Amino acid sequence: MKITKENILQFEKLYRTNFINSLSGFKSANLIGTASKEGNTNLAIFSSAIHVGAHPPLIGLLFRPVSVPRHTYENIKETGYFTVNHINKDIYKQAHQTSARYDKELSEFEECGLTPEFSDTIQAPYVKESNIKIGCRFVEEHWIKINDTIFLIGEILEVILPDNVVLDDGYVDIEKAGTITISGLDSYHETKRISRLSYAKPGKELNTL
Amino acid sequence: MKITKENILQFEKLYRTNFINSLSGFKSANLIGTASKEGNTNLAIFSSAIHVGAHPPLIGLLFRPVSVPRHTYENIKETGYFTVNHINKDIYKQAHQTSARYDKELSEFEECGLTPEFSDTIQAPYVKESNIKIGCRFVEEHWIKINDTIFLIGEILEVILPDNVVLDDGYVDIEKAGTITISGLDSYHETKRISRLSYAKPGKELNTL
Question: What highest taxon heads this organism's lineage (chains A, B) (predicted)?
Fold first, then answer.
């Protein structure tokens, strides 16, 4: 069936949110850890993290409109730091629970049953229960005019992960590390590798790696 | 183990690219269809599409540096239109093959064995073999200064998808539609739903939907 923009604008609000959130495809499943200047920790689930570049190593995140309180954004602007922690099957319920609207004084770590962990380099908490943890420093942000959202970019300063998930060519087997994926607002999925494919060249047959 | 930014900068180039591309988590798997002013069709695999907003309905895409030819970007700027087509297991090899560097006169549709399909609204080709197809119009773009990439945003004008994958609350069951996900540069994965979770509120137990 075909659904037009006019149909979409007439959808009931939650129906439209569910529908449109599903359309970009599967999404990354991360917990973003931050702290205020005073050291209050915050943890929030994000499905918008994307790869921005490898040299320098960069990750981008989309933030919802400034009109609602955004503790994660405020903390990043205060301290300059955030952590990206992959969500796995053991913690997906705790991760989802971080999307509840807790007061800023409360830490989602405590409220949702996850454990903060610190390194010397990053002024933000990691999630102990996560298997792949990335420490980032704020580098730039862009204001998306059409809907008042912000695309924010962080430089990767350190990565903490199990030795046995990094393959010989640098690929990180995030499936083996238990990382899961999200679709829509609230659907969590495990993955099963189909295959890795060789570098594509015109007229050359692809191989399975 | 801990890997620092200094370690990352000393990695061999392809090793670093594989490593950093894996870190954001699972990625969306889409084919972006465009056409030049003259009507030459182009098709390119993108793993950077993300949800930007539901009202108006928006999708964002990250483009690599301007220094390399980017037919997709050029076509979008020429015509103002692009299509987003979910990749499924039946076409993932053809989809991967679109990443080969074909001359601009050649169409990846023909070279890779996929079929262009047109609608009245969108001046860009859809992929017939894709189950979920989204027609978009360019709305704004942002230049990421630190690595000369571009974050581009399109407004969703129409969505073409099977009736039976849209649930009562608007959620689109993209897993049922066969949509797959990508990790790193070249790894393709099927998904298996763990569960959908209810809207989170402080102090309230989560339910499985």
Answer: Bacteria
Task: Name the residue range of residue B41's domain.
Answer: 26-189
The angle formed by the CA atoms of residues B38, B41 and B47, to the nearest 5 degrees, is 135
ipTM of the complex: 0.97
Over the stretch B49-100, which tens digit does the pLDDT of each residue have? Answer: 999 999 999 999 999 876 666 899 999 999 999 999 999 999 999 999 999 9
Among B158, B171, B202, whose Cβ lies nearest the Cβ of A3?
B158
Q: Residue A68: how many CB atoms within 10 A of its CB? A: 8
Tokens 């995140």 map to which residue? A61
Q: Which of B16, B94, B114, B187 would you mutate first to test chain A, the one with the most A CBs within 10 A? A: B187
Give me chain B's average pLDDT, please: 96
**B11 domain residue, yes or no:** no
How far, in Å, CA of A40 to CA of A23, rounded?
35
CA-to-CA separations, A25 to A70, B50, B172, in angstroms, rounded: 25, 8, 10
